[in-house]
């Protein structure tokens, strides 16, 4: 077993070359004894040259994993070979150890874990900022540069002119933070005429079929991530990870609206983030005091298009096509939101205008949205207590999804109100066509 | 080319490497496909290390007999040891409802072998444990 130290600090990155059999494992144990110390928060093993692992190898890894969990860190495996992966799966070890097919992603994950630990240790010294409607505590989230990736065109939705040949399939794991229009199903006829508001967050896909029942359908693939295909006519994803996490507290007990929150964040970005070009991608876990939802009532596809040839949002069509809440649909729920916002005080000329126009439209039910354009979807759960010192959005979202009692999913109106939130903020640098769709027809 | 390999090792962990090298060369000669080679190597290491670590009640040197037979459809690995009686096929499957980090780690190797091979039998014969493991070539 050849063991090469590639990085040593809070992250210990070891490249292993050889067999993790009884002998190789004792060599690894020796190396860990020397280099795994009290400063180690993440152990990342590059397994690309390990063609064999036995239970002796697992016996070394499991106690290290336990110790790193205790330290709020992680043992991460990168580039496992097929048979080794099988050994981990058969023994159940695969369920507890994060694994990545490429080293860069594994390193990014290790850096996030190290940051999470750092932010927890330095909580009282984190940057804070007062906003018009509340206050935030700001943490480096280690991600970026952020991008919005677009599939389809929002104008095809508004004109109800989506045709079967415009449907795209996208592998699920690539859409972790995304919103759009779509559904699940094998063949286009299963979902084409019942597509509705859709969202993916925290490894869960939720959609609101326009089948007249007004009941969301959700799916949490456990082992087949990457095999489930999402069918979509229009989808926007946040790519590149989050630049910052912010813990937001509203000044008013009655809450801060989503438009006030975006406006505050735009202002804050203008003040302290010269790299902000006027577009924010947000994902958040919030305590929502009032949720106003909306959604399409019909699948905006060509065969169902309005007879008068207008937009589905035209006054003569909107009643039939859109449901918009005038009273809160839900009060006091835990909310996971994903979306994008454009600051209209900024020129937005840094973005490809063709792509940008596929993303944004002025939603008819959005009141007072003149200084910003927002597009957010939310999935709602029975209220769960807000964590005291949350430092990792992905962890918190997972917790909500795993422990939560699912309530609803909606296109979120901007007057919805929240009191507290952990927000992942992505300062979008690019709007580009989504490169990840499957080219085979849906 | 003989279809059988016979080998005797002492009950020391440093003997594992020699056993692995011999069997690896045997499998080369008999063109065993990679996935099946992996299963055979794993079975050999897990079963031998189990015998060496837990099989004996004294500190004396013992001989462990290894036989590998290569047939048209399967490989068979037979291990004979004069340790105390131990039937690996009677070992309870791990409680998979528990997370792996909360489970007792004993028996992990034998469980792994049973999952990655195609059959395991045990008998006590002439004061010895005789374990036979079958690995189908197309498995």
Task: Describe this entry's structure for a reader.
The complex is a heterodimer of chains A (442) and B (139). Chain A has 442 residues and is α+β, with helices and mostly antiparallel strands. Chain A has two domains: 2-121, STAS domain (Transcription Regulator spoIIAA, 2-Layer Sandwich), CATH 3.30.750.24; 125-442, no CATH class. Chain A is 24% helix and 38% strand. Chain A has ten helices and 24 strands. Chain A has a 19-stranded mixed beta sheet that branches. A five-stranded mixed beta sheet of chain A has the order 1-2-3-4-5, with helices on both faces. In chain A, helix 1 runs parallel beside helix 2. Mean pLDDT of chain A is 90; it is low at 362-368. Chain B has a single domain (4-136), classed as Histidine kinase-like ATPase, C-terminal domain (Heat Shock Protein 90), CATH 3.30.565.10. The longest helix of chain B is centred in the first third of the chain and has 21 residues, at 34-54. Chain B is built from three helices and five strands; from the N terminus they run βααββαββ. Chain B has a five-stranded antiparallel beta sheet with strand order 1-2-3-5-4, covered by helices on one side. Chain B is an alpha+beta fold and 139 residues long. The chains are: A alpha+beta (442), B alpha+beta (139). The A-B interface holds A 21-23, 52, 54-56, 58-59, 62, 65-66, 69, 83, 86-87, 90-93, 95-96 and B 13, 16-17, 20, 34-35, 38, 41-42, 45-46, 49, 94, 96, 99-101, 103, 105, 108-109, 111-112, 115-116.
């Amino acid at each position: 077993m050849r063991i090469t130290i590639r990085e040593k600090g809070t992250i210990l990155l070891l490249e292993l070359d050889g067999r993790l059999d009884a002998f190789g494992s004792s060599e690894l144990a020796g190396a860990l004894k020397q280099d795994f110390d009290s400063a180690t928060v993440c152990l990342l093993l590059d397994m690309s040259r390990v063609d064999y692992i036995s239970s002796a190898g697992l016996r070394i890894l499991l106690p290290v994993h336990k110790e790193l969990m205790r330290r709020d860190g992680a043992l991460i495996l990168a580039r496992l070979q097929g048979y080794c992966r099988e050994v981990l799966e058969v023994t159940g070890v695969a369920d507890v150890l994060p694994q990545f097919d490429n080293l860069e992603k594994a390193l990014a994950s290790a850096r996030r874990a190290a940051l999470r630990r750092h932010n927890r240790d330095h909580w009282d010294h984190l940057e804070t900022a007062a906003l018009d409607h509340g206050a935030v505590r700001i943490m480096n989230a280690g991600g970026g540069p952020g991008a919005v990736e677009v599939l389809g065109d929002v104008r095809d939705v508004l004109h109800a002119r989506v045709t079967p040949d415009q449907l795209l399939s996208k592998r699920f794991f690539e859409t972790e933070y995304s919103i759009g229009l779509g559904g699940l199903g094998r063949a286009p006829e299963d979902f084409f005429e019942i597509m509705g508001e859709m969202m993916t967050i925290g490894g869960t896909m939720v959609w609101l079929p326009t089948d007249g029942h007004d009941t969301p359908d959700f799916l949490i693939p456990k082992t087949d991530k990457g095999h489930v295909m999402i069918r979509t006519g229009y989808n926007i994803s946040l790519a590149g990870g989050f630049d910052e996490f912010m813990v937001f507290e509203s000044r008013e007990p009655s809450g801060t609206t989503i438009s006030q929150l975006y406006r505050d964040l735009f202002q804050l970005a203008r003040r302290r983030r010269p790299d902000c070009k006027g577009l924010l991608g947000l994902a958040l876990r919030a305590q929502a005091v009032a949720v106003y939802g909306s959604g399409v009532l019909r699948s905006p596809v060509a065969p169902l298009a309005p007879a008068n040839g207008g937009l589905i949002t035209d006054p003569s069509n909107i009643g039939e096509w859109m449901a918009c809440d005038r009273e809160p649909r839900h009060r006091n729920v835990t909310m996971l939101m994903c979306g994008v916002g454009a600051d209209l005080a900024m020129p937005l000329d840094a973005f490809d205008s063709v792509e940008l126009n596929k993303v944004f439209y002025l939603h008819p039910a959005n009141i007072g949205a003149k200084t910003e354009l927002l597009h957010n979807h939310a999935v709602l759960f029975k209220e769960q207590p807000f964590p005291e010192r949350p430092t990792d959005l992905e962890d918190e979202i997972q917790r909500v999804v795993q422990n939560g009692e699912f309530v609803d999913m909606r296109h979120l109106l901007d007057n919805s109100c929240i009191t507290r939130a952990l927000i992942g903020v992505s300062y979008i640098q690019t709007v580009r066509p989504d490169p990840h769709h499957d080219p085979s027809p849906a | 080319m003989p279809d059988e390999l016979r080998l005797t090792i002492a009950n020391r962990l440093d003997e594992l490497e020699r056993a692995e090298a011999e069997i690896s060369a045997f499998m080369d000669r008999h063109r065993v496909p990679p996935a099946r080679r992996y299963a055979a190597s794993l079975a050999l290491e897990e079963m031998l290390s189990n015998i060496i670590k837990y099989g004996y009640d004294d500190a004396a040197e013992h001989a462990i007999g290894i036989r590998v037979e290569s047939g048209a459809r399967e490989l068979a690995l037979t291990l004979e040891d004069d340790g105390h009686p131990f039937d690996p096929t009677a070992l309870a499957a791990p409680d998979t409802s528990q997370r792996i980090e909360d489970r007792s780690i004993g028996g992990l190797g034998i469980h792994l072998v049973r999952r990655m091979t195609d059959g395991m039998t045990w008998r006590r014969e002439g004061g010895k444990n005789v374990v036979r493991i079958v690995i189908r070539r197309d498995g």
